């Protein structure tokens, strides 16, 4: 697999112009995206649209975006290759339930697409999006930032040292400010089944994507979860079982919750453990056991610090590696990422769909497949 160095080589060369983005959404993630673009010379935002005209206009003013549109149709029509302000890539930062529709509309209009996680709500939608990208010959990728993180590259290296894994526990849990709004009687998008909300789709996706990134698609999925009155899940567990292939015998236990603080994630072989502080963007990474002892000379109880300096919480830093890689790929004429290929995004949605059905979370999109 490619390593960190290739994700950072995006400085424009002579004659290279920045990759031009149109943004859908003016909310939380669109702000992170704009802050990352401000730090990335290879990228520029040309235009934005949002559900409400005034939100798009305010976003454009705040982030010095030259154009704002009242609808996606208007934005796509205004920024074609022969227009006065063409764009190359549409960044889909709208609610989960609109990812498939918005990504498909942008691909059909001839643009490359970076669509936020989760890629889609159903496996049927995910497969159709990939088909559209292939037919229109455009770049398509799910914005799962972890694939491009230096901490995940470090984990890949560490796992190569510890031998066969038996048990992996991946945790993505955080108390959500939107939980407070829900308890106060509101229905934020994160807890609205009509918008594809819930803990599995919002946080469980990080654990499932990481498992598929490292070990491929599991053979069996077993899920439990706690439902809110709104009909979405607020926390739960997904067990991914690997019965065959290189990872035969491995169980990955995915913990996700919007009502608890996070815990560390661990990868265990017979004698060694790799522990990480967070499975979205690992920074504190530790190898514990005899393999660490071999390099430190300390024996079986040894601990080797494999941490990376990341600064993910600083404005603009969150999406910086993902954005750099998308710019590099689009400039190179790629149609997907080899680090986070489309078949992984489809597999993750298949797993999440199965988990949702076992837990009892249904979306309107389920009856459209
Ligand atoms: N990669 C990450 O780390 C990360 C982190 C957070 C979220 N996300 C993902 O990002 C997506 C958005 O989440 P968020 O937290 O940013 O939500 P948010 O703050 O509610 O923002 C959603 C935005 O979508 C806009 N929108 C809604 N319907 C639209 C339509 N029909 N056309 C155009 N725009 C529309 C809203 O417009 P108005 O503002 O005009 O109402 C709003 O600006 C979700 O899929 C989420 O999973 C990813």
UniProtKB/TrEMBL annotation:
GO terms for molecular function: nucleotide binding. It comes from the Bacteria. Residues 19-142 form the Gfo/Idh/MocA-like oxidoreductase N-terminal domain. InterPro entries: Gfo/Idh/MocA-like_OxRdtase_N (IPR000683), GFO_IDH_MocA-like_dom (IPR055170), NAD(P)-bd_dom_sf (IPR036291). Residues 288-311 are annotated as: Disordered. Residues 160-253 form the GFO/IDH/MocA-like oxidoreductase domain. This is Oxidoreductase, NAD-binding domain protein.
